[in-house]
Amino acid sequence: MKIAVAGTGYVGLSLATLLAQNNEVMALDVIPEKVEMINNRISPIKDEYIEKYFKEKDLNLKATLDFKEAFEDAELVIISTPTNYDEEHGFFDTSSVEDIIEKVLSIGNKSTMVVKSTIPVGFIESMKDKYNIDNIMFSPEFLREGRALYDNLYPSRIIVGDRGDKAHEFADLLLEAALKEDVPTLFMGATEAEAVKLFANTYLALRVAYFNELDTYAEMKDLDTGDIIDGVCLDPRIGDHYNNPSFGYGGYCLPKDTKQLLANYESVPQNLIEAIVKSNDTRKDHIADMIIKRNPKCVGVYRLTMKSGSDNFRASAIQGVIDRLKSNDIKVVIYEPTLKDKEFNGCEVIEHFAEFETKVDLVLVNRMDENVELIKERVYTRDLFARD
């Protein structure tokens, strides 16, 4: 089958790599450097399994800047372009998804379109009405940054927002390429599938917020957070996972998906969803307050990234903390080896760790590693378990 994948972020590139094992895949992007890297089998994102498959597998994969080349004769078009939350309008900006839909329709292609981008509840039905089409469906993804291809090879579940033959064909493509056997597969309405995505991510944000608020309480009351978490999580209904305190939730999905779900509620009664959104700001306020109380002369931020093994720091919680510190006239410098610029958000970026540690009297660390263990006496972190 010829398959087109529009967008080569974590979702698009992992799917393109997965499906290129057994199909002809054309990956479309708007950034020439990314297209060149993919065609030279260099991953433009940090992902262990994508890098491994690029080196070791004979993938039938080509990247292009030309949408006509990508979509011509494609039987399946996967749409995985970014949908950022528009704070001004209070909704996802789905213009990139609609742009791809219009491009597919402009060349008269009747291929099945599968939206993998995160979208508002009700989006697919609105597209069917707007463009008078029925060859479009939604399939939520459940991927981790830096582990996207792994999570496609060993999926927790496959969900397709359609019950027709094309939906089953798409699910079969994913199952054929996966290494995990007996993957739970669900077929449902498009709107229900859209809701699954937003509710799943909002639950994850809730769990992050819950353990962060537990940690805030313990810190303010001078209690041992680890002991409390251990005692709470031995309850099998709660479980000892996804419970490591942090500076807040961030990244591609959780901040925008929680806000979108709240927007989707509109006139529907709720208290919890709004609290999850607000809790993240409260946590960053608390972290900043704890730093300010120490009266540091210069605060060093060790990595903007949120997770170990990741090069992504989009919407990372530490950036909110930086803003709060700067508004209190506290000098902040940043050590982030993935950044080539000398400045980020008005803060000096220091390339070498040795220079960084000599300039700062307090170091903010979201996730500990061996570098900062040597200066532990100057570190402020809420990381208890040395894992994400």
Please describe what this structure looks like.
The chain is an alpha/beta fold. The chain folds into two domains: 2-188, 3-Layer(aba) Sandwich (Rossmann fold); 248-380, Rossmann fold (3-Layer(aba) Sandwich), CATH 3.40.50.720. The protein is built from 15 helices and 16 strands. A hairpin with a 2-residue loop joins strand 13 and strand 14.
List the helices and strands and how they pair.
Elements lengths: L1 E5 L3 H10 L4 E5 L3 H8 L8 H9 L4 E4 L2 H5 L4 E4 L5 E2 L4 E2 L2 H12 L5 E4 L7 H9 L4 E3 L9 H6 L4 E3 L4 H13 L7 E3 L2 H31 L4 H9 L20 H12 L6 H21 L5 E5 L14 H11 L3 E5 L7 E2 L2 E4 L2 H7 L2 E4 L4 H4 L5 E2 L8
Parallel strand pairs: 1-2, 1-4, 2-3, 4-7, 7-8, 9-10, 11-12, 11-15, 12-14, 15-16
Antiparallel strand pairs: 5-6, 13-14
Helix pairs in contact: 9-11, 9-12, 11-12, 12-13
What would the keywords be for this entry?
single chain, 388 residues, Rossmann fold, 16 strands, globular
Give a brief rundown of this model.
With 388 residues, the protein is α/β, with parallel strands linked by helices.
